[in-house]
Amino acid sequence: MTTALPDSPTVPALDKALPAARRAHAQAVASGSVTAALGVLGVALGLSAVFGAPRHLRIGWLLPLVGVIFDLGPLGGFFVAATGAVSIAVGIYAVGYAQREHWARFPLVMLPLFVAAMLLVPAAGSVTTFLLAWELMAAASLVLVLSEHHRAQVRSAGAFYAVMTQLGFAAILLALVVLSAAGGGDAFATIAAGSGGISGGTRTAVLLLTLMGFGSKAGLLPLHAWLPRAHPEAPSPVSALMSAAMVNMGIYGLIRIDLQILGPGPHWWGLTLMVFGALSAVFGVLQASVATDLKRLLAYSTTENMGLVTLALGAATLLSSYGARQVAAMAMTAALLLILAHAAFKTLAFLGAGSVLAATGLRDLDKLGGLARRMPGTTVMFGIAALGASGLPLGAGFVGEWLLLQSLIHSPHENNTLLALTMPLSVGAVALTTGLGIAAMVKAFGVGFLARPRSAAAQAAREAPTSMMAGMALAAAACGVFAVAPAALGPLLKQVLAALPTVGGNEAGPALGAYLRLPGIPGSMSPGLIAVALVVAVLLALGLGRWGLRHRPAAAVVPLWACGADSLSSKMQYTATSFAEPLQRVFDNVLKPETDVEVTHFAESQYLVEKVTYRTLQADPLEQRLYTPVVRAVTTWAQWVRRAHPGSVHLYLAYGALGLLIVLVISR
Amino acid sequence: MSWIAKIGRVGRIVEPADDAPATTVAPPTGVGGSLQLRHVDAGSCNGCELEIAGAFCSVYDAERFGARIVASPRHADGLIATGVVTRNMHQPLLNTLKAVPEPRVVIAVGDCACNGGAFARGYGVVGSVADVIPVDVEIPGCPPTPAQIIAALRTVTGR
Amino acid sequence: MSTTTGLAALATLLQVVAVVAAAPLLVGGMRQVRARLEGRAGGGIGQPWRDLRKLLRKQQITPAGTTVVFGFAPAVVAGTTLLIAAILPLIALGSPLDPAADLFGVVGLLFLGTVALTLAGLDTGTAFGGMGSSREITIAALVEPTIVLAVFALSIPGHSANLAAIVSATADHPGQLVSPGSLLAFVALAIVIIAETGRLPVDNPSTHLELTMIHEAMVLEYSGPKLALVEWASGMRLTVLLGLIANLFLPWGIAGADPSMLAILIGLVAISVKIALLAGVLATVEIFIAKLRYFRIPELLAGSFLLALLAVTASYFFATPTN
User: Fold this and answer.
1) What percent of chain C lies above the pLDDT cut of 70?
2) Are A210 and A171 in contact (CB under 8 A)?
């Protein structure tokens, strides 16, 4: 296929470019299809574990002393299936995305490995297997976050993420080792059988440590700061996997260890989960509503949703510890539904954001806009995701939130001051979260996709290739199913609930048919019927609008009303910063934005202003108030410890010998 | 709550309405009794604005005949223009008329809008409103009284 | 089956038709009350109907650069309001849509309409459109906790958030209307309705100054038939929300779950009287108050949130055992 061009220096490069492009295409297809195939495997395995008998597998030779144990029950199967479903969409999407963004070979290889590690975590049946799979998952995700390591922000985000992930791992390691020692074995089954004999102090310690470690992975306050740093800098398919599948592993850890294995605990366990959940939800959504970076907004929205899930888990635990098992079953079902819905709409949202990033090179909402005409498919997809994230009817998240609210308002409050006080406050927190979530998603969709482009890059956007659209369409189909036909999930949720007896599992949960009916309580809802009725009502409204049609003059397209001026420039549109400014002002005390105004005068006269520069920065206030003192304290302590490291080899040999002696003495 | 007592004491202060004058301009769209107008000051001294404000206040109450002033030309059936058209307001006046959906009317209030008035040969003046856009109703006067303005509006609304 | 559910479905249909027909009359009536109290004559109750008929015959204008979001938003707002009118127990209790959506669903549909109009405001790409959208969504976000807590407070007596259950619980036990929880919930809900429908002191529906607009600023680009739909939808929202608060706290006159023709007619008359009374009171109160500065509105909404929280807690601690 070589055309004879006279003395063109680019001909040899052209010769190499075509096979290189074909090679890149082949590699991307391979990586994407392996990821998608792993996803299909995950869904099949997960569903078979939920509906069939639990699977048990022991590979004794893989790890010395303990071997590797896999134990897949309904709970693990649920999370494996969810992860698998997300991976299918991401895998198909990555085929096109990797080519558009010219991925190197390394990230292409790591993507299926990351998915495989994530599928292993819920399947793990012993402490060592779990920790092994967890670290594999964390390492793979770190490598993928650092895909574009030539950029400084990516490197700093990667370092931050690495440190926080390892800190979380240290907490989980400690918790699981203590649990394993107290429970008398390495396998989860052994520990669960012996959990009755674990003392209250040990249980408290395990709970607090797992809350720290798993909570950090799930993005709960206060150890959430890695989320809004790492997710935006990672490539978008990886962000989707991290936000929609990896954070679920934190929740899985909480449910498995604290709710299933450690069993029923005192009242304050549920209360703690509820408090952390509510705080994460409100803080996360508040930050999302003032964020101007599209992917940072979505990352904070993940914190918000995981907060809601934890709130639901806490409510289930608290209610079940007071004996209100039916309502607890409702809350647990709500938690599971929220996890699934979040996986669907967050995947779709990140894939859409990735499509925008690939087309424009921009993540900044203040510079986007006008994408509805240039990228109509992506706009529709992101619109579906935004509707799901906002918790409005016809959105994927509506049913889960409805169930959560119903479980909170039906909690038994006679003679129970704690429930009488916490439930209204939780309802208020959930409602505030929903309201602010609506604001955040309206901003993301309205400013980012509607009206006119605010920059040249947004103007030059073109639609994503077919494979990316196919991946997004899959996730959108899942959102649609959750929005109008959640009955399809009924059998799945029933099976998973039955595996969680400590949170009302042996009660019947809400009946998910054409109508969602609450067990034993008057209350029902039908999202499908609402959708149909709404379509009919909108058609009726359109019909009303056609009254008087024959009297109307011909329709016309006219310029915008610019208050008499000749035209409106695209700079006169509202940006994301201006859209969120009233909310920022209202929540000023919590958000504490930094603003800086710099006035430059003319050299000749101090009375004349040459230019004014206005800078505003919305950092994470928790990071500034909590992390900075801790980091400072650790640095001071490290400086102090340095004094024991003067550089003498004799001293280091002495340290080594002393350490060995201590170990020998203890292990006698 | 002495205001309630005051409302009762003062009662109705609106001037009684005369008989409806003949309709000279057909109401836009054929529905009588509904006329929304967007006010444009093309370069007036604000004398006519004060009279228009008086016409829509409690004493003269133009709203009872179906007329209303609206904020956006897109919501309006027409323009109520005052003042002679200055150079700076020439294009904005044209743009404002273009923003009004059909069918539309233009009402010129005051001598300046009708024929240039006292400023007809000024250096910053393009002409009267009628020179720039087609005018349907003219209300002469410097300034016209609220009663005259209302009578002219009623010739359009038909109420 | 048989004629009983048939009559209940007829009552629901009658509700929707009545709301469509009566909304402009309600707006006209409120304007008339205001006019008479100001010493004017006013345009008459039929003025909004004349305006609507005229708007429907005007030219359909599409501003350049807008998308289908701008085009369909009026229909979505009107559609959600019509659906709410079909769900609420206004004339009779047994709406066929009652098991499909409870009060949480109604609140969600209200917000869906608000979001549609907000996106339309952003879609115009004008500064005023964005400003109106930004202000509207801030108020909507801050009003949601109050409205959900008020729903919570209302659902305690009937042990359900489904509207038929709430209204029949109030009708069966009218004594609990004077309980502190009920009164606090009424005040909180009243403030919510004022904020949601954009009446004074939150928003002035008849202002001409763009910098003071919230709802008006989003619809500055609409004209002709679409503007007619938007204004109609605004009036219908006010009608259904006044009907909701009327039947939640004064449920007498409402027809039962399997009504007769006579009961339906009585229900229609009763709800019309109640809504007219509430609208008259609202219009009268509006004479005496000025619009709040925008950044005082969050304080008002925080106050209403506190009232709603107290309503729930009071209902808990002073609960009269019902059944």
Assistant:
1) 97
2) yes
Asked if the structure places residue B107 within a domain, the reply is yes
A553 within domain boundaries: no
- CA A467 – CA A470 distance, rounded (Å): 5
Q: How far apart are CA C275 and CA C273, in angstroms?
A: 6
Beta carbons within 10 angstroms of residue A657's beta carbon: 10
Token pair 């409690």: residue:
B58
Query: What distance lies between CA A644 and its chain's CA centroid?
Result: 43
CATH number, domain of B138, equals 3.40.50.12280
Q: What is the ipTM of this complex?
A: 0.95
Domain that holds residue B80: 34-157
Q: Which residue is closest to B40 within chain A, CA to CA?
A: A564
pLDDT at position A16:
60
pLDDT at A14: 53
Residue A10, in any domain of the structure: no
Q: Which residue of B has its CA nearest to C128?
A: B72
User: Which backbone phi and psi does A64 adopt, to 5 degrees?
Assistant: -65, 150
At A167-206, the pLDDT tens digits run: 999 999 999 999 999 988 889 999 988 888 888 899 999 9
Tell me: do A155 and A250 sit in the same domain.
yes
Q: pLDDT for B103-136, tens place per residue?
A: 999 999 999 999 998 898 899 999 999 999 999 9
Cβ burial, residue B147 (10 Å; 0-12/13-18/19+): middle
Note whether A89 and A120 are same-domain residues: yes
Domain contains B71: yes
Give the mutation candidate from B36, B72, B98 for the C interface (greatest C CB count, under 10 A). Answer: B72
Structural tokens at position C180 = 């502190």
Secondary element (H or E) of residue B38: strand B35-41
Cβ atoms of C71 and C2 within 8 Å: the answer is no
pLDDT value at residue A13: 53
How large is the greatest C-alpha to C-alpha distance in chain C, in angstroms? 61
CB contact set of C70 (below 8 Å; sequence gap of 6+): C62, C63, C120, C123, C124, C221
| Cis status of the peptide bond prior to A264, with omega within 30 of 0 | no
**Do residues A525 and A534 touch, judged by C-beta distance below 8 A?**
no
Q: How does pLDDT run across B38-88, given as a tens digit for each residue?
A: 999 999 999 999 999 999 999 999 999 999 999 999 999 999 999 999 999
pLDDT score for B18:
84
User: Do A564 and B30 make contact, defined as CB atoms within 8 angstroms?
Assistant: no
CA neighbor of A575 nearest in space, from C208, C127, B67: C127
pLDDT the model gives residue C319: 62
Distance of CA C179 to the CA centre of its chain: 25
pLDDT at A132 over 70: yes
Q: Which residues, 6+ apart, have CB-to-CB distance to B37 below 8 Å?
A: B67, B68, B69, B70, B76, B77, B78, B79, B80, B107
- Which residue from B minimizes the CA distance to A558? B99
C316 neighbourhood in chain A, CB within 8 Å: 413, 420, 424
